[in-house]
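ok so for the tutorial part 2 we go from a plain amino acid sequence to predicted structure tokens. step 1 is just haveing the sequence, like this:
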Amino acid sequence: MKADALSLVSLYSTVNKAYVVPDYQRPFAWTKERATDLLAAILADATDKQEITSIGTFLFCVVPTQGSHPFGDNSASSIAPRDVWEVVDGQQRLTVLALVGYALKQRHAALTSEGLVYAPPLEFDMMYSNFKRVNGRRVPILVRDGDNFDSGIRSELGQTLGGFVSGGVTPAATIADVLASIVKWTDSLSAANFGLFCDYLLERCKYVQVVADTQDIAFTMFEPLNSTSEPLTAFEVFRSKAIRQLGSTQASFEKTLGYLSYENSRRDDVVKRSNQLVFSLAQSYSGERPRIQFVRLKKYLDRLVNDRFVSSMERGAEFLDGVWNDQVVSAPWFDASTKDCVRFLKASNHLAPMPILMRYYQHDPSLLPEVAKAVAAFWALWRSAFPTNKLPEVYRALLEFGSAHDMSIEHGRLMSVADFKSYLRGELERRISQAAAGAASSAWVALASDELNYEEHKAVCRFLIFIEMGASLRHNLAPDDPWTNLDDIEHVMPAVTSPSPPELHRLGNLTFLPLEVNRSLRDMNWAHKREAYEWLATPTRMSSPPTVFSDGSAVPPGVTRYLGPGASALLHLAPLAERQAWSAADIAARTESMLKLVWDSLYEDWLH
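step 2 — the prediction. this is what the tokens look like for a chain of 608 residues:
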């Protein structure tokens, strides 16, 4: 790496060199006021005979052009410059200076026709014209990724500067207003101060030029920013490199860009989604777990510029966008049950199996329903009885290079769904045997009875309640996304009971009630709840719903409204309504009964 303090003329003094603005830099964003303020400050300094004016730091890195030139056709007649420097920081100022050069050239021609005698140096003429001569032909000195000096300049920036060279100026919309303001400002320069301004601009305006040998060094030594002074993402730098090496057709990144949604998202959300994609894909593709840190992720991506990885990234973005984040895939396999499993894992903040789900999705999306169901069952059974500090290792072992179960895309072999379920069962049984003796089912029930608590495991308890109720009934009652609101889980013994018994938040004291009914009954005594449960569980709807309890107390309006024609009978409340009393012993007995049913459903059915 080399750093120098140079006069602005040095930007244009090297023959056969061009600057490229990489794709990770966002489009030109300077305002016309900012551009003309800079020019006014330079003129004021020139008039006051200041020693120097600082233009700031430009950070470049050398783009390798040996072998395959990323901006030319590698022929003997190519007009691609020999030296290409990537603009890591400073593209906005370089663009403005290119516009200033054009405006000064126009003003110089006008003043010369009026009698001005001012002969600029060669470097000044280069700045005026924004071009270099290569093989006798003029080429722009500033382009963007995707431009090719031989096959065509396609970017708005490249075409604008190319228009300066050819004389057919058609500035891009993002540049036109700024250019018009700069031209208007330079038109105010007279024969008396034009030469003063120009000489000061090139000789006294100084910048710090930092040139790194590699992109990695540039980003390691300097905070990686894009043109809006926001942190770059590793994907943005990877995309730029992939387009150069693979071409824009193979590396269009249509789905990835759609998932990141630059136009409709805050920058923080873009960075978060980018890291989510790259980190999950890294595990799914190669079994690696790079740190979510810019340079580490960038170095990981740099070695994977190939068609297969780009395709995997596109599929990964498709999975995250349509399956994991928003559940909007319309394919027949993505049914309500599969959506519920994904939403349950998200509601539990259980992100560890995401690379596994992504792996199966990339191979065959139709496998995802059974895989998601197995993961949801495994997670619910594990979390009900054990802490989760060792759980991520269970998933990682399925993707690690050299492991017995390596399923990574790059070098592994995908398990059949049956083998995957067998693996999860084995890990669960091994964990149970470490904690308790006896049969796995009875040992798990005992462990979960002690561990599971609604205050700490809301999503898991909700999931187990729906399992115990029966999926068909649950789909008639719960909203399309049952994890957006947890206010329809009822404490049979009221949560306001004082003093609060230890059994209060156990699974056996919980049931499901539609939201309005739950809010009406939540603090009532057992006698009133029992009577309401009996009505609610009756299969036949009432033509005249009761308005008072048997003791004459008023029935809450939410209960009365629900008992009218059309509402589903809450059959799962019938066993509760049979109890004359509700005690700590009843809660313990119901907890055990519910957990046995959950084990039979999740372990014996979902995991087999």
